[in-house]
Structure formats: C-alpha cells, structure tokens
Write a structure and sequence with these properties.
The complex is a heterodimer of chains A (190) and B (157). In chain A, 45% of the residues lie in helices and 19% in strands. In chain A, β4 and β5 form a beta hairpin. In chain A, α1 packs across α2. Chain A starts with 6 loop residues before the first helix and ends in a 10-residue tail after the last helix. By secondary structure, chain B is α+β, with helices and mostly antiparallel strands. Classes of the chains: A alpha+beta (190), B alpha+beta (157).
C-alpha cells in the first residue's frame, strides 16, 4: 500500500477532521506546515506516563489506547488529539498512549504548537475540547466523591445493622444495592 | 438582604475570579476587565437558571451562593462561589446539557455571547485561558487517579 505523505494529502485529511471544521483551507495548510506526519506501528508507545515530552499529537487514522497506572482510561481515533496539556504546561506526561493499530499521526512540537494556537479555527477547537474535558472531569470527580461518601455511609450502616441483628445476617450486599437507589441528597451544602 | 456592599465591590469579584478554573492563569488586570465586561444578577433561591434542552448562550460565574446541576433529574454536580456553568453552550451553540437551580440566593456574573466575545479579545486572555484550563485538567486528572487508587486499594483489602 502506498501512503502519500505530501502536504496537500495531509490537508485533505485535516479537512475531514470534524473538530477542525471551522478552519479555512489556508489555516489547515498552516497546521500541516507546522506538523510532522509520522506513521507508527501497532504496539508503539507515543507518549509515556511520567516522562517529559512536550509534543502534541493529532490522529489522522488508526486508534490509540490511553492508560494511566496500567488502567485504560480512554481510546482515541481519527480526528482526536492529545498531548495539549504537556504542550502548554511543562510537566511529565500524565498518561501513556499506545497505538492499537497502525497509526497515521501529526506530531507538533511545543514551539509549533504555540504558533498553531494562534490559528483561530484550531484555537477554538482546542478550547472547545478542553472545556468539554474539564466539564467531564468535574462531573467524574463529583460522582467519585459521592460514591465514596455513599460507600462510607454504607459501611457505617452495615456495622450498625450487624450489631442490631447479630452476626448471622449476611445481607450487606443487598443492603448496599438498595442504598444505591436512594437519590443523591444535596449533602455538600445541606 | 445586604446592608453593605463589599460583595458588590469589583475588587472582590476580581479576587474571586482567580479561583475560577478557567481563569487560573489570568492576570489581575485581565480579571478586572472581565468583571467590567460582565453583567451582574441576583437570583433567588429555588429559581431555575438554565433548563436542560433549552437554548441559551450565557456563561454564569457564581460570586455568592450555591447551585445544583441536574441532568434527567439526577444531580451531577453542585457549585458554590467561584463555580461556573453554562460554559459549553457559551462556546458552541447547543441546547443546555443540564438544568441549574439556585439552592440559595445567588449573586452571579453573566457573560452573554457579545460579552463572551469581548472577554476573548482581552489582550493575552486566550492564551491565559488555555494555560489555565490545561492546568486544571491536570489537577483534576491527578485527583481522579488518587480516587481510583484509593478505591482499588480498598477493593483489594
């Protein structure tokens, strides 16, 4: 299979990226000019958690797995990007990204990324994606915090009911399940 | 009922904006400009500020008071001073993704589409916004990892 890596072919691919739909052809040409297009094989690691790396990646084709502490937290595919946190803020990578298939990807260095962030269509795409992500993580934190509070409430309940009913009752699983049906109360601010 | 208006002082609002996740990397001057651009509104306890599925493009930032965020009747979050909501529809026209109800009397800053645009034109603001957001996403990711670790630890014991 012959893969054309010419800049026009890259721009054509970028035109199909939904998140960049507000970019003009000229802006996409600028993105393509700032980026390096690379093909990586299945199993290759693009970014490694804890390591310093400041490149930003935009996937043109193929899929990658995002893992943290060995746990899969996300999968990304064509049109998705990653590495923007490290590109903007110095610091170690907060996740490992591994190719799940052959991946065709644009790699953008931190200096080029800063130039790209000045392109209105790209900047807006970045901004939208980050606002969405921030909103998602906020909700995940609220949910996780709530589950923890509920779990500790369950533990307290179970301990209490175990005392009342004696050691032979073993329905704590059921009890926990029914407790989960209770609507979440506005406990944080009463 | 407010008998003095320290709460109304722009300096107080700018100070509070420092705690807003989006604005973490903004300068005092940029924040003061945002306060100057935004409208202020008092909302009574129990009022529905946004309704899921409805159109609306304003971004709200809480100066005082608390709100509850619900989706399909389920509570998804709660916010107090420094919290913000309505941001997704402010960025991209789309129906509101959640309902937001005041759980106390509220003092909010509102940025409609025009004010939002004006905010984006503040010198250096766009860059500060991206840096501030990326910093907060990192912090949130770390927090989630901590929670996952704790959960994993307790499940294993």
């Amino acid at each position: 299979m012959i893969v054309t890596l010419g800049p026009q072919a890259t721009v054509d691919r970028l035109e199909a990226v939904d998140q960049l739909r507000d970019c003009t052809r000229t802006q996409l040409e600028e993105v393509a000019r700032l980026a390096e297009r690379v093909q990586v094989g299945e199993g290759e690691v693009l970014a490694r958690e804890g390591r310093i790396g400041r490149e930003f990646f935009l996937i043109l084709s193929g899929d990658v797995a995002v893992t943290r502490d060995g746990r899969r937290i996300n999968s990304l595919g064509p049109g998705n990007f990653f590495g923007e946190l490290a590109a903007m803020n110095q610091g170690p990578r907060n996740a490992t990204v591994t190719a799940l298939s052959a991946v065709d990807v644009l790699i953008i260095g931190p200096r080029e990324f800063a130039a790209m962030a000045e392109i209105p269509g790209f900047r807006d795409a970045l901004f939208k994606s980050m606002a969405n992500r921030l909103s998602e993580v906020d909700e995940q934190i609220a949910e996780a915090t709530d589950q923890q509070e509920r779990a500790s409430a369950d533990t307290a309940d179970n301990r209490e009911s175990a005392c009342q009913r004696g050691p032979e009752s073993s329905d704590s699983g059921e009890h926990a399940a029914s407790h989960n049906l209770t609507p979440r109360s506005y406990r944080r601010w009463g | 009922m407010t008998t003095h208006d320290e709460v109304g002082a722009p300096a107080f609002a700018a100070e509070l904006l420092h705690g807003v996740p989006w604005f973490a990397a903004c300068t005092d001057d940029q924040l003061a400009q945002i306060v100057g651009i935004a409208e202020r509104l008092h909302v009574l306890e129990g009022e529905v500020i946004l309704r899921e599925g409805r159109l609306g493009r304003e971004l709200f930032i809480i100066l005082e008071g608390t709100v509850v965020v619900t989706r399909a009747g389920r509570v998804v979050n709660e916010w107090g001073p420094g919290g913000y909501f309505g941001e997704l529809a402010a960025i991209e026209p789309a129906p509101r993704s959640a309902t937001v109800t005041a759980t106390s009397d509220l003092e909010v800053l509102i940025l409609g589409p025009r004010e939002f645009e004006a905010m984006m034109e503040i010198t250096g603001f766009r860059n500060a916004l991206l840096v501030g957001m990326s910093r907060r996403i990192r912090e949130a990711d770390d927090k989630l990892a901590d929670i996952a670790e704790r959960d994993g630890g307790s499940a294993g014991s």
